[in-house]
Design brief:
By secondary structure, the protein is α/β, with parallel strands linked by helices. The protein has 1 helix and 11 strands; from the N terminus they run H-E-E-E-E-E-E-E-E-E-E-E. The chain has a 6-stranded parallel sheet with strand order 1-3-5-7-9-11, with helices on one face. The longest helix is centred in the N-terminal third of the chain and has 29 residues, at 2-30.
């Protein structure tokens, strides 16, 4: 029974963290003029170089941030989201896989439906 409760608590905390990351991304996005399918620049002079795929629902925000896939989100310097519905939030974070989520500096979620939270964490 304890193991079952632990699994439920783990899923709930994961959902809370994903919700918090989504809220953070929306807050950052709302401070500029970027819309879904566009890039936003967080560095002075507009030389940040954030890029998105041709999908109108991809969103990248930050110097060298790349959202490359359907419904992907990359927020942070060098953040990379590849794979359908992938999300990378944090400097040099990478979400590589369908519905992969990486939150934190240098965090890497490598594989479909993987989630990692914390600086330099991996899944």
């Amino acid at each position: 029974m304890t193991h079952f409760k632990s699994r439920i608590a783990g899923r709930a905390s994961g959902a809370v963290l994903l919700g918090a990351a989504s809220a953070l991304a929306l807050t950052i996005a709302s401070t500029g003029s970027a819309l879904a399918g566009n890039t936003c620049e967080l560095s002075a002079g507009g030389n940040g170089g954030a890029t998105t795929s041709v999908d109108s629902t991809a969103f990248a925000c930050g110097p060298s941030a790349t959202a490359d896939g359907d419904d992907t989100t990359a927020v942070g310097s060098g953040a990379l989201a590849e794979g359908k519905e992938a999300t990378a939030v944090g400097r040099q974070s990478t979400a590589d896989g369908e519905k992969a989520t990486a939150i934190g500096r240098g965090a890497t979620a490598d594989g479909d439906r993987t989630t990692t939270v914390g600086a330099y964490s991996t899944a």
